[in-house]
Amino acid sequence: MVKENFRSNSMIALQALTDYLEDCENNQIPVIHQRHISEIISDLDLDQFVKDGGMSEVSLQKFLETYLENTTRLHHRHYMAHQVSVPHTLGALGSFINGVTNNAMAIYEMGPSATAIEFFMINWMLEKIGWTPSPIPGTENTKHVQAYGGGVMTHGGSLANLTALTAARSAMFPDVWRDGNPGDIVVLVPEQSHYSLKRTIGIIGLGEKNCISMPADEDGRVLPAQIPALIDKLENNGKRIMAIVGNACGTAAGLYDPLEEIGAICQERKIWFHVDAAHGAGAIVCEEYRHLVRGIRSADSVIWDAHKMFRTPVLCAAVLVKDHHHIEHAFSQEASYLVHDKEQPGIDLMMRAVECTKSGLGLKMFLSLAAMGEKGLCDYISSRNRLAIDAANYINNLDDFECPVMPETCILCFRIGSDNRRQLEIRKILLQNGHYYISTTLYKNARWLRCVLINPDTTLDDLKGLFAEVRKINSELDQN
Ligand SMILES: Cc1ncc(COP(=O)(O)O)c(C=O)c1O
Q1: What's the total number of domains in the chain?
Q2: What is the predicted pLDDT for the residue at 154?
Q3: Residue 433 belongs to what domain range?
Q4: What is the Å distance from ligand 1's center to 237 Cα?
């Protein structure tokens, strides 16, 4: 007897989601449609269901209809807004399987399959970076391999950045958990770094003012030649540099920093080198783009989001370190009810992560890759990056549009005219119309419209349609 109408309810959900995906493919419905939150709360009958329970098959069907009607359709090929994947449906099943089994696998006994897959995926990423993967615990190999990498999967890149810089701090100050922060630490970040780095520095108590931007070229890429002088200046002022961060790639325009040069400086000055590859980790895997991350092997830590360019459902990221000791000692508190000397056939990942209860994240990433394979993944990444370049070339031949920079990834920034406020007005109307969903960013001291070409089905014709609608909205605004 399967519990609680599992089969029939699942069939209802399966049918509703299949229809949903078909609707997205047909492209006849809006990609985005934002009704007022109070209408959605009311239409979903949330109040009644929470009070009375008893959602029947019929009411589930109706509920799902309303729920899906009010979703933003990432599977629609005019979804070009954010760095959130259009998940492979096999990867999406990973979320479903995790939901049912609920193997919160921070400790091995709570999820042997989930731990085995996370361990395997971490090793796959370590190898792709060019680091030594962890030997399987309890095997002969463990005795021979001395220096090897490690890592853990986290619920998102922000948490991965927090974990990486916590590891950097513990490496530099082993007694930090007992004694607290020394007052003289700074972290050097790219001008174009993601806000989660500044937030991390705030959270770990270093003080946001000690997050220092490095000099950059006109496109915002770190200028390595100027880093030594900055280090000298800070050290002469009594500061100690805990870490230097490189982007692979930046969030706004998707450009890669010169990792090789930054890494060489870090090695010479014995400073922790952290690479934020949340969005751009595809270049680590795909030979065609590997030159963009040249030098990444010299890093001490790397973060990698699978829920961006790896077609994996949210949330799924990883923090990886070249020397496994650093992740094992990142957090030195103990939870004696969970961690004690025990003989077991696997490993506990709990002490590596901020989270105590943790989802089986590896499964989603694994299933997405198992559907595509490495070649399929690289073909997808390459097609998205090429589309961004084709679109930039198209724009550069238009008199009224411009791009601030040639794309290096699937992120394309552009604008019509040069009025910052106008770009925001155009985006607002675009989203109200619901035919296209794009984002916007500040970059090079100006406001840009921004497409993240993450949907595998988006074509150059779709982008030409977007540019035409932008032009039409702009001329209507001119007339008002
Ligand atoms: C470069 C970079 N790092 C970190 C993050 C944060 O990742 P997450 O949204 O998974 O927390 C982002 C998000 O867009 C990013 O672009």
Answers
A1: 3
A2: 97
A3: 373-479
A4: 32
